[in-house]
Amino acid sequence: MLLDVKDVSLSLKREGKYSKILDQVSFHVNNGETVGIVGESGCGKSMTALSLMRLLPDKAKLDGEIRLEDELISSYSNRKMQKIRGNQASMIFQDPLTSLNPLHTVGKQIEESLLLHTSLSKQERRKRVIKLLNDVGLPRADELIDEYPHQLSGGMRQRIMIAMAMACEPKLLICDEPTTALDVTVQAQILELMNELKERTRMGIIMITHDLGVVAEVCDRVIVMYAGKVVETAPVEELFENPKHPYTKGLMQSIPKLGIRKQMLGSIAGTVPSPENMPAGCRFADRCSQAMDVCKTNVPQMTQVKKNHKTACWLYENKGVKKDAAAGSEQPKTAFYL
Amino acid sequence: MPLLEVNNLKQHFISKKGFLSEKRVVKAVDGVSLKVEKGKTLGVVGESGCGKSSLGRSILRLVQPTEGSVKFQGKEVTDLNALEMKKLRREMQIVFQDPYASLNPRSTIREILEAPLKIHNVGNKKERKKVIEELVERIGIRKDQLNNYPHEFSGGQRQRIGIARALALNPKLIVADEPVSALDVSVQSQVLNLMLELQQEMDLSYLFISHDLSVVQHISDQVAVMYLGKIVEFGDVERIYNHPMHPYTQALLSALPIPDPKQKRERIILEGDLPSPINPPSGCPFHTRCPFATKECKEVVPALEEKTDNHFAACIHI
Amino acid sequence: MDALRYVFKRILLMIPILIGISILTFFISNTIPGDPARLILGPKATPDGIEELREEMGLNDPLYVQYGRYVNGIFHGDLGESTYSQQPVIDDLERYFPATLELTLFAMLITVLIGIPFGVISASKKDKLPDQFTRVFALLGVAMPAFWLGLLFLLLFYLKLGILPGSGRLDNGVSPPDMITGMYTVDALLTGNMVAFKSALIHLILPGITQAAVTIGMITRMTRSSMLEVLQSDYIRTAQAKGGSENRVLYGHALRNGIMPVITLLGMTFGHALGGSVLVESVFSWPGLGKYAVNAITYLDFPAVMGVTLLIALLFITVNLIIDTMYHLIDPRLKYN
């Protein structure tokens, strides 16, 4: 297991009060695997990524255990975390224009990772930067190295971001909506590049996105988040074929599908509860068409519904499927599976 | 007679940077012709910078078109004076992309919805109140929320308020410029459903501008695909999506991620990015990225021609 | 090469601006009521005497002729003669201006050395103790009037403690260094005259700090807010995600981006300080341009007013040019065009 996240909770201080943004988030990522985290705005998917990298605002309270290659990095000091960031674990962001420093050349920005984490000489670093630029499919690398981000197109900028993240051959790559700001033809290029890089390097990828299409294209396994909690996790084909949680179902039904026109789409009534006013029971209960009494008061735990497929919903807790013994316990025990 | 008929519309912007520098022309819309039938939806789809938003604005004369004609119910719009234009605006309304930026944060929803009625002197105070209350009920917002301010609503609610504002004057045509792009999928579907219902009830016509191919497919009857200020393909939605003719449309559709992991497709990956509209390529604007481009494509500007029944494309090789 | 062409183009553009300013001030100062001839001759002058002097001074010619004569003079290094000091204006400016320039440069140096680091620290330790401290400090600087602060300094360091001089540019008995730039500290250093240097520097301290107090406050606040904004940027998060240390992110990525608006403000304050250090100059009896300008206005000394105005305009434009050039050097997004 490359990354093991156990019961991670996050509280941020907002207007003088702490509010819980993430609540006992657990999941894992294997080598060579792409795990998608999907959900709508405010579900905590980006905060999950920032928690893994510990790139959180001041006054953030982070609980739980995060293990990267069996190292408990959640206990690391800030200084020790700096050695992990950009080295074993790196990250790319949504908007490649604002994510690149406008005043530094492309070469300098990619080189910085090498400068921080390797002992390569100046010449060696330059050679490596040129190779990285070639690897991400950018031509005329030796000129590009001296250019500035504003001189490049959106697609090229995102390739630069990827080259930067790949500089120290990370084991884990976290991508936060990497193609959302890009046009669809450019998105296709970037997704292809990422699949190619994964094949070549066997690194683990976390793909954070709101786009179920992107999930279907690149992910092996999916985690669905809602209001700061994981509500469902399954292999990608299983999730699309057999979604269990009413929220996941609602999401799937609300996307327009090719070949079906002018028909009413499924939609989810109401809005996401704010962190300050979380319902006592299931957080989706207020919007759920199948909500029962128990949903309003008791929090459902992640329950195995099929091999590798779990969901946190009271609909499945008593239907011949035994729930996990402890909250968020990750290793499914086959004995419980009927 | 179509409700809206646009002929050879051009919208050129002159960009001049500072004193003593040469001026450059951005051809945002460069000779677009299209028709919108009553009660139907024309989807305009394309990537950023293709000129689709400029097209919407110049049809409504929010910017004065450089050249060409826009006929609404058979009447030429481009040379109307201010007073006539104001009258006509009752019939053609716009819904913007960003529901956060397009509603005045200091006005209540009631004020926002009443403004168009007041401007056009519709009814007295009592009648206007009735219209507004019917409107909000229609879009699924409670009457007692009328005195709330925009920030008290979610993004989806705000976009529905934006639609209600456009509907207040009973228009015949709504230009919707990326109306669901800022919304989450579950909210996006609510807005799309509302738009479809309203169309059926009120026989509305939409010019639906979007970069999202699946949304356009869902809501449109006909589709125009734009690239660098020009329409490269035009036709009924089924024909465009099932049998795209233009290489750009083919690439665009093949690039669209399908939310079905079992469906693996051959993908046409286009090289490079969209060229700048300041210095568009000669000949066919797509030739720099087209996998089938020949020498001729660099020289000849292809016209949008009917290739099969009601299916138009601008490509010399079809 | 691009940079040189840009600067050259900007210098060309300065010419019409300066012509415009000279026309404006010339006509304004000649249309306000008050007769310089009468002022020179005093209350007992006869109308004939005044008329004679007016004729002699060329005041009876049409304005455009007077202006033409003035411009012609400028090209020969002649700004007319001050009716008050009875000296060529150019000589007066040469005498008073370096004193003001020296004081202003010194105050600016203090401002930059204190204001920018304070602002950066304040931003990086937002809401913590160092931030609270610098914010109060900056507020005090902005809130206290310069002349009051100057008097306070005089009282404390000159009268009470007696450790710093209270007026003038040099101690009695120290002769000014040989004139090169007219700025005593610079000239003394250039000629190796350490006695004069020490004396000149000590005299600069109180007026320098007084003048800097206000600008330090402004620069600190501007640096803080600009840095806070930059620290929220996506590229700062990217730099952190690469594993950069706090200092590396702050000084390697944020500062260069955050400094831009500070430079603009610095330029503006510099221009203002040059023309507006009257109060400080009065408090410390600093023989500078401010006092000269006030005298010139009081005595309707048109040639002197014109000379001062033109000089300040020229400086303002030059400072602007320097700032714009710095902007272009720092930010690759601004192309020279």
Mean pLDDT of chain C: 87
Structural class of chain A: alpha/beta
Average pLDDT taken over every residue of chain A = 89
CATH level-two architecture of chain C: Orthogonal Bundle
- Spatial order of strands in the largest sheet of chain A: 6-7-8-3-9-10-12-11
Strand portion of chain A, in percent? 15-25%
Poorly predicted spans of chain C: none
CATH top-level class of the largest domain in chain A: Alpha Beta
Tally of helical runs of chain A? 13
Low-confidence stretches of chain A: 320-338
Kindly report the greatest chain-chain contact and the residue count on each side. Answer: A-B, 47 and 45 residues
- The radius of gyration computed from the alpha-carbon positions of chain C, rounded to a whole number of angstroms, is 24 Å
Q: What's the tally of helices of chain C?
A: 14
Number of strands of chain A: 12
Q: Would you give the CATH topology of chain C?
A: MetI-like fold
The H-and-E topology of chain C, N to C, reads as: HHHHHHHHHHHHHH
GO molecular function (chain A): ATP binding; ATP hydrolysis activity
InterPro entries (chain A): AAA+_ATPase, ABC_Ni/Peptide_Import, ABC_transporter-like_ATP-bd, ABC_transporter-like_CS, Oligopep_ABC_C, P-loop_NTPase
Pfam families (chain A): ABC_tran (PF00005), oligo_HPY (PF08352)
Subcellular location (chain A): Cell membrane
How do the strands and helices of this protein lay out in sequence?
The complex is a heterotrimer of chains A (338), B (318) and C (337).
Chain A: E1 3-14, E2 17-29, E3 34-38, H1 45-53, E4 60-68, E5 71-72, H2 78-84, E6 89-92, H3 96-99, H4 106-117, H5 122-135, H6 141-144, H7 154-166, E7 172-176, H8 184-201, E8 204-209, H9 212-218, E9 221-226, E10 229-235, H10 236-241, H11 246-254, H12 293-297, E11 303-306, E12 309-311, H13 314-317
Parallel strand pairs in A: 3-8, 3-9, 6-7, 7-8
Antiparallel strand pairs in A: 1-2, 1-4, 4-5, 9-10, 10-12, 11-12
Helix pairs in contact in A: 4-5, 4-7, 5-7, 7-8
Chain B: E1 4-16, E2 23-36, E3 41-45, H1 52-59, E4 67-72, E5 75-76, H2 82-89, E6 92-95, H3 109-119, H4 125-138, H5 155-167, E7 173-177, H6 185-202, E8 205-210, H7 213-219, E9 222-227, E10 230-236, H8 237-242, H9 247-255, H10 295-299, E11 305-308, E12 311-313
Parallel strand pairs in B: 3-8, 3-9, 6-7, 7-8
Antiparallel strand pairs in B: 1-2, 1-4, 4-5, 9-10, 10-12, 11-12
Helix pairs in contact in B: 3-5, 5-6
Chain C: H1 2-31, H2 36-41, H3 47-57, H4 63-75, H5 89-124, H6 129-143, H7 146-160, H8 184-191, H9 194-231, H10 234-241, H11 246-276, H12 278-283, H13 289-298, H14 302-330
Helix pairs in contact in C: 1-14, 5-6, 5-9, 5-11, 5-14, 6-9, 7-9, 8-9, 9-11, 10-11, 11-14, 13-14
Domain ABC transmembrane type-1 (chain C): 97-323
Subcellular location (chain C): Cell membrane
GO cellular component, one term (chain C): plasma membrane
